[in-house]
Amino acid sequence: MPNVIWTHPLDLNEANRRAGGTALESLGIELTEIGDDFLRGRMPVDERTRQPAGVLHGGASVLLAETLASWAATFCVDTATHHCVGLEINANHVRAVREGWVTGTARPAHLGRTTQVWQIEIVNEAGKPVCLSRVTMAVLEMPSGYVNQRSA
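Above: the chain sequence. Below: its structure as tokens.
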């Protein structure tokens, strides 16, 4: 099946490098795989991502979901002329995780000219759902004269 959603070559190593000094680095989030219609990443369940009750913090799951949607949306636009920002996110937390890794997979539900909607399923190491999320992204034109550091 030909690659139909990505608009430019994808470099997961470069994307992961850009996480330096951000919340992604602090929480150990990394992009791991890209397919014809999905982007996958993972996050550890440890002292950085657990809540006081000892299970994965729902906010950490939301951060993973929005990270995957944001990168995926960016990979679907011409970054010399457009950028993507989050408009709305929702998340249903369906299973607790105490340790190990969770993996999220983002797939597009809608790729429009001005909006994108991404569905993200986060699973535990056994492949069981932990969090189901949906993220709506706005696709915006770059302001006149703006130099996008991602495309520079």
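Strands lie at 30-34, 39-45, 82-93, 100-111, 115-123, 129-141.
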